[in-house]
Amino acid sequence: MALQWMILSWVVAAEAAVALLVTLPAPRLLKSRIVALASLLLQPLTGVLPFAAFQLLDLHWKNEHRLICAGDVCTTDERIRYEKSIFKAQRNVILCVLACLLYWCIYHICKYNKEIKELEEVEKRVKEQ
């Protein structure tokens, strides 16, 4: 069960590193190569979106069918275990949302950089004429 969350956390860390590389200021040649590399990584990373969505659905289903530990019915150990499971579920929801959000950010940053490059080429052609 923990393997899927470990994989998702590594993917989020990789996406964060790519987002950081794409947003850092760099010379044009280096920036264009970084954006090209990030664009190539976007297609395989698309698999993260359905994976994260499935994990969110799984978390929602588990939350709906979770035994509620409230009142004097539960012992202290049961209450602690219940609270820990709630905290883990909240952490995992944040991880899933962050995976989708970082992918979206990287996609749009690459898209905007490509549009800027195309506009610069058009401007260069207009100046030459």
UniProtKB/TrEMBL annotation:
May play a role in anterograde transport of membrane proteins from the endoplasmic reticulum to the Golgi. It is found in: Endoplasmic reticulum membrane. Its main location: endoplasmic reticulum. The keyword Transport applies. Keywords: Endoplasmic reticulum, ER-Golgi transport, Membrane, Protein transport, Transmembrane, Transmembrane helix, Transport. This is Endoplasmic reticulum transmembrane protein. Belongs to the BCAP29/BCAP31 family. InterPro entries: BAP29/BAP31. The chain crosses the membrane at residues 6-27, 34-57, 92-110. GO terms for biological process: endoplasmic reticulum to Golgi vesicle-mediated transport; intracellular protein transport; protein localization to endoplasmic reticulum exit site. It is a multi-pass membrane protein. GO terms for cellular component: endoplasmic reticulum membrane. The keyword DNA-binding does not apply.
